[in-house]
Design a protein that fits this description.
112 residues, alpha+beta, five-stranded antiparallel sheet, 7 strands
């Protein structure tokens, strides 16, 4: 039983690391997102996702390039990742369904 829970924790942590690496690479891409469709003023996009999908921001991070990465989610499990460049242009980097929050893992009795 202990081995199963350890394996589950490793699998969850491994999946989290893959998602984190993907989000980091998206955040560091400075010009790519702007060239794609789905870019406009941040306020406008936030309002569209709130009214259209019930999504609102739950996480935000600043990349070393100055790009702002935001994760929006809804109660229904839809999610969107937005990248806002220093010039104010906001682009849709990714979107999907089935968003689930992962609890913090406790390692050797410590929270990380």
């Amino acid at each position: 039983m202990f081995m199963h829970s350890t394996r589950t924790a490793r699998t969850t942590l491994g999946g989290f690391m893959v998602v984190l690496a993907m989000l980091t690479s998206i955040a560091f891409a400075s010009g790519t997102a702007h060239a794609q469709s789905g870019c406009e003023a941040r306020k406008s996009l936030i309002e569209k996702f709130d009214k259209g999908y019930g999504e609102s921001p739950i996480a935000v991070g600043l990349a070393s390039t100055g790009n702002l990465l935001e994760v929006l989610i809804s109660a229904d499990g839809t999610w969107t990742i937005l990248i806002t460049r220093p010039d104010g242009m906001t682009c849709i980097a990714a979107a999907g369904d089935h968003w689930r929050m992962i609890e913090k893992l406790k390692v050797a009795g410590k929270n990380r």
